[in-house]
Amino acid sequence: MSTFNLNVDVNHNGDVKNADSLCTLDDIDDIDFSKLLEKPRPLNIERLRSLDERSLTELSGSPQLRNGDNASRVHDHADYVVSPSVGRRSGFNTPRSQHGFESHPMVGEAWDALRRSMVYFRGQPVGTIAAVDNSEEKLNYDQVFVRDFVPSALAFLMNGEPEIVRNFLLKTLRLQSWEKKIDRFQLGEGVMPASFKVFHDPVRNHETLIADFGESAIGRVAPVDSGFWWIILLRAYTKSTGDSSLADMPECQKGMRLILSLCLSEGFDTFPTLLCADGCCMIDRRMGVYGYPIEIQALFFMALRCALLLLKQDGEGKEMVEQIVKRLHALSYHMRSYFWLDLKQLNDIYRYKTEEYSHTAVNKFNVIPDSLPEWVFDFMPHHGGFFIGNVSPARMDFRWFAMGNCIAILSSLATPEQSTAIMDLIEARWEELVGEMPLKVCYPAIESHEWRIVTGCDPKNTRWSYHNGGSWPVLLWLLTAACIKTGRPQIARRAIEVAEARLHKDHWPEYYDGKVGRYVGKQARKCQTWSIAGYLVAKMMLEDPSHVGMVALEEDKQMKPVMRRSNSWNC
Fold first, then answer.
1. Which key words are in the record (predicted)?
2. Which value, in Å, is the radius of gyration of the alpha carbons in the chain?
3. 38 within 8 A of 32, measured Cβ to Cβ
4. pLDDT digits (tens, 9 = 90+) for 410-420
């Protein structure tokens, strides 16, 4: 019998009636999950060669992989060594940390606020709600979002509290197994929920989990990023605790394969990137990110690398690993070649010829040089660069997106030289990207006629607000991790000091508005959990840089280097 063959009573006290639009998790009478939710024991795991030392090319051709030898499974022990942290405390209820840094008065208050956001299901912590703001209508801010929980999970892991993370991973995994329908269309088996909430039936005194797979979201878009974040968090849990038993569970192995099967299946694609609808990630409203958005491509790359470290290389796992290795090679080449923009590449695009035909074409996507926006010429510094927002036929979105570029650094999608260039850009354009509150989710804002066309006159995404050039404190943890990985912690320290001047005083808003992030967002929730958790994670990583190992992967030296297009053009 399948572990996930569960029976659920959807109709609770007449409140939940539409089985097509809600997925629930009810009693499990025939399965004992109690052992799975026990606190993990620190394990003495043999240190094998990491992905940094063992190239993808070598891995794909190894006799162990071809023979499905379990012993050849690659465990990740990168340069950032994180010892098992069970029982460890970092910066909470301690006046001074073990590294000698003074604890900011905000830290204790932030921990109190984070703990108030915790959600319990049948007595066990399973996540944190999006915001604890009783002054506004709840909408879906009282739910546990997969992407929102990631910084909370990292904070708990760094503080030696892995139980809530383990519970969350298992609960969302079980929700994945449910049949998912929007109207009469059935979603893929591997889709992870965007969010879930605990439903309490007062008549039966019974709790049930209710999941949203996009059927209740604005625009009815499935969350492409949820599955990637789940894999990344599973690897962070394994790295932090030293406990591989969770990832080794057949259910977790199957969950990873199902998520990646959605992305690695063959189709009409001519690119290794993922084709996505608008609103499928953190930017969950219409903002012109349809196509091949950088955030999804970077998360996809990181999830592939994490899965490569977690999947068993036997049976179905062996075949999946082979697919992952091939895709990583193609994806890294494509992103580094066509999404990267620096001063030289910008000048080259400016001089593009159009309507080229055959495999010798330089302007492969037939981008019209006149479509280059004026702002990008002034924005690009002499030293610096970034991955642009989107590349597809006859279209390049030159906007800067913070999450995609930070994830590119952490996953080593960006080469060391590109990572340095991204940091150079942030320093050179500090006022534009950090300003009075880190960090711009994207830059610049779209406005006027372009805003009306791209957003459909969205009243929430007006210029320099929300996803349209708003400043999001949660991005502080990603910026800090990227700074530490590139050896530039002073940039993170400066950004944290900027945030500390206002975040607590403003009651931890969701986002800030204005060109420099001066104003609390016009519709921003207060006590936003991921703003709180993002700050805590940033502080703890600066205190103990080894924490970055949970979310950072070193470069695979044998990955094909980016082709210098200028050389080929001169041939």
1. Carbohydrate metabolism, Glycosidase, Hydrolase
2. 23
3. no
4. 999 999 999 99
Residues 509, 510, 511, 512, Cα dihedral to 10°: -20
Neighbours of 456 (CB within 10 A): 11
Which residue carries 């990110």 as its tokens? 289
The strand pairing partners of 181, in sequence order, are 186
Tokens (6 digits) for 225: 């990023």
Q: Say which residue, 453 or 85, is predicted with more confidence.
A: 453
CA distance 125 to 461: 34
The length of the chain is 571
Q: Give yes or no for a cis peptide into 373 (omega within 30° of 0).
A: no
Q: How many other CB atoms are there within 10 angstroms of residue 96's CB atom?
A: 10
pLDDT in tens, 457-485: 999 999 999 999 999 999 999 999 999 99
Residues 378 and 238: their CA atoms lie apart, in Å, by 44
**Could you give phi then psi for residue 340, rounded to 5 degrees?**
-80, 135
Residue with tokens 């089985």, as numbered in its chain: 19
Q: Which two tokens stand for residue 360?
A: 């010798």
Yes or no: say if 294 and 281 are a contact pair by the CB < 8 Å rule: no
Helix axes of 529-543 and 489-500: crossing angle, nearest 10 degrees: 140
Query: Distance between CA atoms of 571 and 562, rounded to whole angstroms?
Result: 17
**What is the distance in angstroms between the CA of the first residue and the CA of the last residue of the chain?**
62
Cross-strand pairs, 124: 121
- d(C-alpha 384, C-alpha 396), whole Å: 19
447 Cβ neighbours under 8 A, 6+ residues apart: 463
E strand segments, 407-463:
442-443
- Contact present, 240 and 156 (Cβ < 8 Å): no
- Compute CA distances 324 → 58, 71, 249, whole Å: 14, 19, 20
- Neighbouring-strand partners of residue 284: none
Residue 107 DSSP class = H
Structure tokens at 107: 């830290």
Confidence (pTM): 0.83
Classify residue 119 as exposed, middle or buried by CB count within 10 Å of its CB (0-12, 13-18, 19+).
Answer: buried
What CATH number does the domain located at 119-550 have?
A: 1.50.10.10
| 322 CB-contact burial (10 Å; exposed 0-12 / middle 13-18 / buried 19+) | middle
Cβ contacts of residue 331 below 8 Å, gap of 6+? 272, 273, 297, 300, 301, 304, 413
Q: What is the pLDDT of residues 296-335, one digit of tens each?
A: 999 999 999 999 999 999 888 899 999 999 999 999 999 9
- Structure tokens given for 388: 């642009």
Closest CA to 508 of 541, 539, 533, 479: 533
- Distance from CA of residue 434 to its chain's centroid? 20
Closest CA to 256 of 278, 237, 222, 229: 229
What single string gives the DSSP state of each residue in 16-61?
A: ---TTT-EEE---SS---TTTTSPPPP-----PPPTTTS-HHHHHT
| Residue owning tokens 């969701």 | 510
